[in-house]
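ERR on first pass: missing label on line 2. Operator R.T. fixed the label and resubmitted. Corrected input:
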Amino acid sequence: GQNIDQPTEMTATEGAIVQINCTYQTSGFNGLFWYQQHAGEAPTFLSYNVLDGLEEKGRFSSFLSRSKGYSYLLLKELQMKDSASYLCAVGFSGGYNKLIFGAGTRLAVHP
Amino acid sequence: DSGVTQTPKHLITATGQRVTLRCSPRSGDLSVYWYQQSLDQGLQFLIQYYNGEERAKGNILERFSAQQFPDLHSELNLSSLELGDSALYFCASSVLSGALQETQYFGPGTRLLVL
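pass 2 clean. output:
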């Protein structure tokens, strides 16, 4: 089966750096996605990792280790607008682009 | 704005009723995915269509059904509604060109409240 774990909640201070971890157990791994979701709104795509290593995109970076079944999303220079849920999602080969989502990590950024 | 549209934005109905949610994918996208998100729950994959044909099924109840039309818009039908069906229903789309994995782009969702 598939299992995706991420912390339920995190808090951080404006201007700081926060790392949101995601661990997964699955077969036929086809890459890992991070989405941001503000309350009551649509998830929006942040990043996709299929190879090991770090992908950097502005203030956001995402890391993947396939051998460890581990990923993290790093948010730098936190802003109040970064308060949202961050969803880790795993893609499966042969699954017609199917994604399985973790429960999400709710991040609260305080002044 | 992802380019995926969903109607209606909000829907309030009673137990036992039937509703239809509508989704139009991004221009050029052939595949549509439906998800359910209950309060404080993760996104649960329901069903996927590609160019009019069902491609994958997830945790979709027998009371729920979907279809994709020749113009590629999709409808999710929910019948014999129960209180527990109250949730946000999202539609997502992708090209499904055969690439290793494609990003799914989400619509704004339909918030369903069953009273």
